[in-house]
Amino acid sequence: MQDDLEEAARQAQPSITHLEKYAEDLREQDRLLLEFDANLSELQQLKAQPEFKRMHARNLYDRAGTHAQLAYVLHSWFSERHAVMRDLRPAASPEEEQVPEQVDKMRRMMDACRQARRDVDELLACHAVIADMRRQLREILPGGPALADKAAELLNNEPSLRSWVSVDLSLRSAMILDVERSGDYGVLYSALLAARTALSMRDSLDLKDAFSESEQLEILDSVVSRLDFSLESTRLYRALPRKAENKQALDDFNGILERLQREAQDELARRLQMVPEHSEASAVPAPGRRKQVLIRTRNRGVVVGSRRKPEGDRPETVVVIDPIDNSELARYEESSEPGVWQPVGDVRGEPATPTPAALATLVRRSTPLLNNAERRIAKVRSQAKTATVGADIEDILVQQARPLDALAQQIQEALTRENATDDSAAGIDAARQCALLDAKATQMREEGRRLRVEILKRQAPTVGQIAWLRSQDEVVIAKEGERVALAKRKGFAQDYLQEFVIRDKDGSPLWYAHFHYASADAQVSDFSAAHLKTREQRYDRGPQAMATQSNQALIEVYRSRIDKSSAQQLFLTL
């Protein structure tokens, strides 16, 4: 192994052959260490060994070090495979998919994906072994805990475990889409981007003192929301007609997302239990400690990303970057509303311009697209019955309307290009199909908005959803009576309440907003607490003890808070 390292140092870029030899030597060393540890344990059972703890601990640490070295090698291999995948672009049209050159490119890309999957699987296993070695070391006193801390630093210069889980999801989705080759790939791709963005944001919290306590809660809440969207999109993709051979791959993909969502929700709930008052008084870290920026979006909570300077006539942007290959996962620009950012375009980049297809070919494509559109609307309606994030359901239908818009535009261009506008045979038929595509795309967008409204109105309230519903003229907010003194509770200061009601368009109450004050004549902006209530919670005098609530209930209480800015915008000027 020493020879391997010296040879690697002599090479500007170690060859794959050399790295393969080094990896084999590392695997053999791990096998020998495992065998030595088993023999040592057997000796200890026969007769107590005075140096057993020290030798056992050192052996565990050496195994952790061996797997760290193997992780470095696997990372290098992955970089080679990824270079191949990055240089290959998908076909721009169904016809181009059948071109021999494109078929060969796709074959090479998928071969690289499969090889990369094997590398990443083994790399994830390395992380698991190191975690297990650290767990065992913490139980060996007196010297084990110090070695466990030392083992934690072995991969400090490598991408995090979450980064590799993100890559694993990307490779899995590529292989799923390769089998399906269906037009609804955008649904799964959106799920993938949401999950990868969530993992990147969660990684940002590992930088000590980069964010205040309240900011950390906001970030975790946004991580949970993005993973919720990812799960809902994946479930919708699975519900659409799928090939049988993809069932296990989709089940595994969904299972990983469920685990990530559960872990994120558990972490947010634990943090909320530690900060029962959800105080925002913690100091904001000095700018020098923060390598990334925190921005706020209208419907997606907060985003952690890197600032990019303006280019040409484009404004400043904030991007979420994959830490392994530096590709963009998401990009945001500031909207017309100060301090509120919005996503920009498609971070995959524009595909090559497709070769214009013949009008007859385009018209033939329109029929299955129109037939599938109604089935997809029905699937999304079914999914919406159990969905929890209305904006995400709307986004799914908006995305699925885009292929119809694109094909309608291509048909219109072909009509002009082929001078077929007055053709009673092709022109009228094509014009009719174009109109049907436009109408169906509009229907999908309108249905997405309707479902979003329906979902939001049945959910526990948040200021974000109320602001959106009001902007759509779906709710009316009004002051409900005057400020009143609440019954005095023993051990608590006198509390005064001002209530607002949020009504549906038909006048029925959906939710309530409660603003608490220390006195009857306190300024309206000087409320001591403010939160949203469902109809059932209207007369509750506060949440249950935090320790007795489920994770979901804890998160709902946290999301029901009304911040100063939202209070002024939605309630206090009424």
From TrEMBL:
<keyword id="KW-0175">Coiled coil</keyword>
<feature type="coiled-coil region">
    <location>
        <begin position="243"/>
        <end position="270"/>
    </location>
</feature>
<protein>
    <submittedName>
        <fullName>Uncharacterized protein</fullName>
    </submittedName>
</protein>
